[in-house]
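Input.
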Amino acid sequence: MQTDGVKFKSTFDAATQIYSRAGLVNGLYAGVSAYLRQWMYGSFRIGIYAYLLEQMQLQNVSQGRDKNDIAFSRKLAMGCCSGGIGSFIGTPSELALVRLSADSKLPPAERRNYSNVIDCIVRISKEEGVTNLWRGATPTVLRATLLSSAQLGVTSEIKGYLSNSGWFGSNGSNFYGLPMMFCSTLASSFVANTVANPFDVIKSRMQSMPVDANGKALYSSMSDCFTKSVKSEGLLVLWRGFTPAFVKLAPYTIISLTLADKITKTVTGKDAL
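Output.
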């Protein structure tokens, strides 16, 4: 829904058309083999955030303050930092995910027919140059910076608030803290999706844009893509695909951040978020 080309009336219409045209595996689950993105981007950003959070807590303890006395703005900043670093490292696999997902929407003569994520990355580096593996890196990193800031920072802030509220038992310990983490991560998913969706639209369009025989791309830059998209389709185009993006983001956020927090707590005795 976020890329150029086929227009869909709704999330259901998009799912129906894609399924009827390409089926379940090659249509709705196209690009699922780009697991490399989550291995790199997801693990880097969560690991970096947990490290930065621990350093802030140790600093507070050394100064005789409550270890969790960390300003919300600092949590957002740590989320920005971890998301930006993780995203830049994972941009090639992100590009492969977008290419694999968008390929089935192209006319047969224009399809690149990548077989999997590795084939996609190798072919891009050979046919378009290694540096093009970072095509769309600017909106990708900006999106990830805002997304991680909201996901990780907001989750930490809400988790701390709910833990002290008593609504979920002493320190949020009811049912091993799972209800508290569910509420925290669900709220942060909505905030993150709202903030990051415009960058997701621009990123997807830049990474899947066609290039003519002379090597000229449809968009010359992130700002050019933004201007042309808004001018031709209106401001709300920046939040196109919000519902499927949220349906995708919320379960991932809830599961990944809850697992990261609980595994870290079990292994190290410290909180990851």
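The chain has nine helices and no strands.
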